[in-house]
Write a structure and sequence with these properties.
The protein is an alpha+beta fold. It has helices at residues 11-23, 40-44, 63-73, 89-97, 107-114, 116-125, 141-151, 177-192, 249-266, 297-304, 308-316, 394-407, 417-423, 427-430; strands at residues 4-7, 27-33, 47-52, 77-79, 101-102, 155-159, 169-171, 197-201, 207-215, 221-233, 236-242, 270-278, 284-290, 331-338, 340-341, 347-348, 351-352, 355-357, 364-368, 375-376, 383-391, 409-411.
Length: 445
């Protein structure tokens, strides 16, 4: 087992990893930018190293600084959390070269699954259903036009290096295809330095359902059931739940088996998710694989009593998994609390928290790095907390979430708490009748 782990991340996920490391008797090293000097992850780690100024490119994304911090503190492993360098094949390879264990996917696996076109080809080879579309990257607009006719409108243009909705365009009719193709390529080039595009059939009334998977170094894999992540705004998840109200036992079994098949086929090592789009007829299609821990991992932990960070560390240390699949026996909901103003188009709201009162009680979990008088820097993602409720039934979990949101007081900044409170009363949400298009018609009152 590792003696010391450096956490190459910030905020709530860094603190989350530190907690499990402490429980396992592993020393921790926090890294931080000057903007994060007062963050809780810095205070609770055994050691902390400043790695640069506020911009991510000069701190959390600066591989040389992070590796230097690992070297001077004698860390024998690096946990990247999510975001930043967690799915960076170059960083995974550098860790390998410097004999520091990267607690995540191998460089080869990140390269294979991180590029969407390659991942799709890999899933086809594994016999996992994929969305009809281009077999590789689009070579020209003319090819795109022919393919769109073959697949049938509506279609979706996607950047191969995409994320967060960048370089994506839905096209409902032929007349709009050329403009969409050109603007998506420009946006992808500006955002990722890569304008490679592919085309897919647009799935109507889609649910975004992901399957949590774990694979060890010996080729054994298992799944930990699903999470429904369909409530999204601009392709960013707002709330998640497990089990999905849309699922049936048969569909859960089928999707779980497909996810495990995919993981075993590529001999994946680590914790990850296979993400699917599911249409209104309950046909499911592979969308992408995330080769890292997910923001929404706590709800899976809550319903099956399983520490996913601990499992990541154990797998990285060469400890085999049981291979047993897990199914939820409780219901859990996560609301992402962002420093944003939901009454003003979710505009970011950094600044100083003047008052903070966190809810408590049975079945309430909060993952956060903020506290009263903490100043939220404007340089990073706006998520400041995750509020998770767990209960015997979905109805009880929603009632608990209502109560917890009413108790959650954050003053000095705007937050998404009012949005989540209204969501918990929305008739379509209460009925479990929502898709990834839900937010297009949602209005704050």
């Amino acid at each position: 087992m590792f003696k010391k782990i450096l956490i190459a991340n910030r905020g709530e996920i860094a603190l989350r990893i530190i907690r499990t490391c402490k429980e396992m008797g592993i020393k921790t090293v926090a890294v931080y930018s000057t903007a994060d000097a007062e963050s809780l992850h810095v205070k609770f780690a055994d050691e902390a190293v400043c790695i640069g100024p506020p911009p991510s490119s000069e701190s959390y994304l600066k591989m040389s600084n992070i590796l230097a911090a690992a070297e001077i503190t004698n860390a024998d492993a690096i946990h990247p959390g999510y975001g930043f360098l967690s799915e960076n094949a170059k960083f995974s390879k550098l860790c390998e070269d410097y004999k520091i264990k990267f607690i995540g996917a191998s460089p080869e696996m990140i390269a294979k699954m991180g590029d969407k076109a390659t991942a799709k080809a890999t899933m086809i080879a594994a016999g996992v259903p994929v969305i009809p579309g281009s077999e590789g990257l689009l070579e020209s607009y003319e090819q795109t036009e022919i393919l769109a006719e073959e697949i049938g409108y509506p279609v979706m243009l996607k950047a191969t290096a995409g994320g967060g909705g960048k370089g994506m365009r839905a096209v409902w009719k032929k007349e709009n295809l050329k403009d969409a193709f050109e603007s998506a390529k420009l946006e992808a080039k500006a955002s990722f330095g890569n304008d490679g595009m592919y085309l897919e059939k647009l799935i109507e009334e889609p649910r975004h359902i992901e399957i949590q998977v774990v694979g060890d170094q010996y080729g054994t894999a298992c799944h930990l059931s699903e999470r429904d992540c369909s409530i999204q705004r601009r392709h960013q998840k707002l709330t998640e739940e497990t089990p999905s109200p849309f699922m049936t036992p048969q569909l859960r079994k089928k999707m779980g088996e497909a996810a495990v098949k995919a993981v075993e086929n590529i001999r994946y090592e680590g914790v990850g998710t296979i993400e699917f789009l599911v249409d209104k007829h309950k046909n499911f299609y592979f969308m992408e694989m995330n080769t890292r821990i997910q923001v929404e991992h706590p709800i899976t932990e809550q319903v099956i009593d399983y520490d996913l960070i601990r499992e990541q560390i154990k797998v990285a240390a060469g400890i085999p998994i049981s291979g047993k699949n897990y199914f939820p026996n409780l219901h859990s909901i996560e609301c992402r609390i962002n420093a944003e103003d939901p009454y003003n188009d979710f505009r970011p709201s950094p600044g100083r928290i003047t008052t903070l009162h966190a809810p408590g009680g049975h079945g309430i979990r909060i993952d956060t790095h903020v506290y009263s008088n903490y100043t939220i820097p404007p340089n990073y993602d706006s998520m400041i907390a995750k509020l998770i409720t767990t209960a015997q039934t979905r109805e009880e979990a929603i009632n608990k979430m209502r109560r917890a949101l009413d108790e959650f007081v954050i003053e000095g900044i705007k937050t998404t708490i009012p949005f989540h409170r209204q969501l918990m009363d929305h008739p379509d949400y209460l009925a479990g009748n929502y898709t990834t298009k839900f937010m297009e018609s949602f209005k704050m009152e």
